[in-house]
Amino acid sequence: MSLTERLSLAYIAEAGPVAFGRVYAELMAKREPLPFLGDMMFHALLRPLIDGEHPLLTKTEAHLEWPRRVLAPGCAKTRYPGTRCGFRL
């Protein structure tokens, strides 16, 4: 898992349900040591965490543009032994 993915999961675990765009803003402004991703690449990077067989994230508000869609931990569906809310940080 990439640093950006780990930082995103950690922020969402701390903040609770939060808009995709807010996660991006938090990472690029405060958490990512070498911010380089554009918003669309960030979106593409997190898609496998949402669309995977055992999703680590859930996405709601599908009728909204993607930056406004809410991300939340996917642990309501999936639990992994020895992890916090399904995340291996």
Proportion of residues in β-strands: 5-15%
> How much helix is in the residues?
40-55%
Lateral strand order in the biggest sheet: 1-3-2
Number of domains: 1
Q: What kind of oligomer do you see?
A: single chain
* Named CATH topology: Arc Repressor Mutant, subunit A
Series of H and E elements? HEHHEE
What does this structure look like?
- With 89 residues, this protein is of the alpha+beta class.
- The chain has one domain (3-76): Arc Repressor Mutant, subunit A (Orthogonal Bundle).
- The protein has helices at 3-15, 20-31, 39-51, and strands at residues 18-19, 57-60, 70-73.
- Strands 1-3-2 form a 3-stranded antiparallel sheet.
- Helix 1 (3-15) crosses helix 2 (20-31).
- The longest helix has 13 residues, at 3-15.
- The protein starts with a helix and ends in a 16-residue tail after the last strand.
- The relative contact order is 0.21.
Can you lay out the helices and strands and say which pair or pack?
Elements: H1 3-15, E1 18-19, H2 20-31, H3 39-51, E2 57-60, E3 70-73
Helix pairs in contact: 1-2
